[in-house]
Write a structure and sequence with these properties.
The chain is an alpha/beta fold. It contains ten helices and twelve strands. The strands form two sheets. A six-stranded parallel sheet has the order 3-2-1-4-5-12, sandwiched between helices. Strands 6-11-10-7-8-9 form a six-stranded parallel sheet, with helices on both faces. It is elongated and about 55 Å long.
Length: 265
């Protein structure tokens, strides 16, 4: 039997493939109508088909577009579960929700600084000390958006640059269009299983000294941490950007987020 209290309450979630499907499934079970925004068609395939689920693919350019979407679809709750480094969309969501006096529910993955001797936390992609880069093999696991710019920087510092990109047309195009040698590019979906067999073999094959990735809290990051821990490699983790969330409600747990929406707490 449908929950009449919830069935007219539209929820809009912006997310990727890691947290979005789990949150969406919980909302659908409670009879909410859910709009899920993802960037690519590949990401949309991570969501189960449901008559109450509407998938929207593509980018939102500014806070005005966000407000228009909220008003057109009579959205009651907005959830930001985007990547921790997708700060432009988060900034626009904060601005839009403030303008229309709507609370923004933010889901964040936990960020924990680990006190390991070969883990280094840096502020930006280009903050590895230049003095230590000459003839070092550095693996960039930073996505494709800033890949060429970052690779050029480290190549100019004297490092041998390698990368792992996910198997999407955009990532592959940007990787092979970058300054990185074709033989130094691996197209690989991050493993969700323990053991990191493929990633570990990749590092061994390329004789990697340094790995650069972002503190996203993703399973890809967890893979690199497990590989580097107690190895001779060094892991450089870029700290998350700091944003002023103002009146947003921040959660680190799916159920606490859902409970807040359902007014159970």
């Amino acid at each position: 039997m449908q929950n009449l209290k919830n069935c007219q309450q539209n929820v809009w979630i912006l997310s990727g493939t890691s947290d979005g499907p789990a949150i969406v499934n919980k909302l659908l079970k409670l009879d909410y109508v859910v709009f899920a925004s993802v960037v690519t068609h590949k990401a949309s395939r991570s969501y189960a088909k449901n008559l109450k689920l509407h998938i929207i693919t593509g980018k939102l350019n500014d806070s005005g577009e966000i407000i228009d979407f909220i008003e057109k679809n009579k959205i009651k709750y907005v959830i930001d579960a985007t990547h921790p480094f997708a700060f432009i969309i988060t900034k626009n969501l904060i601005e839009a929700c403030q303008k229309i006096n709507m609370p923004l529910f933010v889901f964040q993955r936990q960020s924990e600084i680990k006190p390991y001797d070969n883990f280094y936390y840096i502020n930006g992609l280009k903050d590895i000390d230049k003095k230590n880069l000459v003839n070092k093999n550095i693996l960039l696991a930073i996505g494709s958006k800033l890949l060429n710019e970052t690779a050029s920087y480290y190549s100019n510092c004297g490092a041998n640059v390698f990368t792992r990109v996910i198997p999407t047309s955009d990532s592959i195009t940007k990787a092979f269009g970058s300054c990185i040698k074709n033989s130094n590019i691996a197209i690989l979906e991050p493993s969700k299983k323990t053991g990191n067999i493929i990633e570990k073999k990749l590092c061994d094959y390329w004789e990697i000294d340094y790995i650069l990735c972002r503190d996203s809290g993703s399973y890809a990051q967890i893979n690199w941490e497990e590989i580097v821990y107690e190895s001779d490699m060094k892991l450089f983790l870029v700290k998350r950007p700091k944003l002023n969330y103002k009146n947003s409600l921040i959660f680190f747990d799916y159920d606490k987020l859902i409970n807040q929406i359902t007014r159970k707490i």
